[in-house]
Design brief:
Radius of gyration: 19 Å
CATH class of the largest domain: Alpha Beta
Number of helices: 11
Bound molecules: coenzyme A
Shape: globular
Largest sheet: 5 strands, mixed
CATH superfamily of the largest domain: Thiolase/Chalcone synthase
Strand content: 15-25%
Number of strands: 13
CATH architecture of the largest domain: 3-Layer(aba) Sandwich
Distance between the termini: 18 Å
Helix content: 25-40%
Oligomer: single chain
Amino acid sequence: MPHSRFLGTGLAVPDRVVTNDELSRLMDTTDEWIRTRTGIQERRWVTEGETGVEMGRKATERALDMAGLAPADLDAIVYATSSPDHFAPGNGVYLQRVLGIATIPALDVRAQCSGFIYALSVADAWIRTGQFRNVLVVGSEIQSTGLELSTAGRHVAVIFADGAGAVVLGPGNEDGSGILAFDLHSEGAHAEKLWVDAPGSMYHPRVSHQQIDAGKQYLEMDGREVFRHAVVRMPESVRAVLSAAGQRVEELKLLLAHQANLRISEVVQKDLGLRDDQVYNNITRYGNTTAATIPILLDECVRAGRLRRGDLVVMTAFGSGFMWGSAAVRW
Ligand code: COA
């Protein structure tokens, strides 16, 4: 079966830059603490009226432009987000609507920080089996509206941020470029270590005043546990995906690791024995944008000339679920 390959990439982030100093006026934290523990210097947060779908649209238009395609050329949409504009329906159909595309399928994937890798695997399978030709894959998130902006929520609020990235995938050609392999996992035993409790359909009503007063609508995280698992699972998954693709770590041109925390990325780099020129991090400027992180990294690298046709790149992610996974790509 033919590989699927990347035809275009794009990103869109809110204009509003939120510095660590700005956060230190909302909660008991400091620029020094945030930089030292996470590497983050600033992040982007939406202002009222900006939506995930709108960011997804901007990123999509840039990816389509690079691919030399129009919205009407798309055959399907896979939209990764853990922060949809509404409880239902998913963001994919809203994106389809604003792009003005008729009745192509639009699927939402909820796999949090690993959402883009999972979404990519669905799009790749559709293309390989010949079911669809040009598939749009989007990762778009607004985390800032789900953060507790006080000292009680500081261990989470300083990390998460907003943004979107998109790629257009199409059938590969004879040069062998494209997606080589995936490695996907989840471990639900840790579901409550990084989660949002409410609203939820198990509650009557789905969210109560008591739950809101208790802050159950906020993203909650056991940071130490997430750190402990992430630094093991990401290198493990990178090795597995390279092995499945018949490639070696030494051959890697670039590792694009989910930007959860710069310290996590440093441990992953060291574990895999990668040089600085084999990794690319942008968490200093964007924070952790969940499912948007990997397509944002990808677009920056493509546009900066860090990735050229023929290069071996691995994308890897770990996050809520726990869910994690990697994709190996011959660019
Ligand atoms: N500013 C200042 N102090 C803070 C703080 C902040 N933003 N957040 C937490 N603290 C404090 C804690 O209250 C605690 O104080 P105490 O010792 O007086 O109780 C102290 O710092 C240490 O807290 P702890 O949570 O144990 O810190 P840590 O060393 O584990 O670092 C994280 C916290 C969140 C930076 C770290 O656990 C982490 O990065 N984990 C991974 C998170 C992640 O990647 N999430 C996304 C996955 S997709």
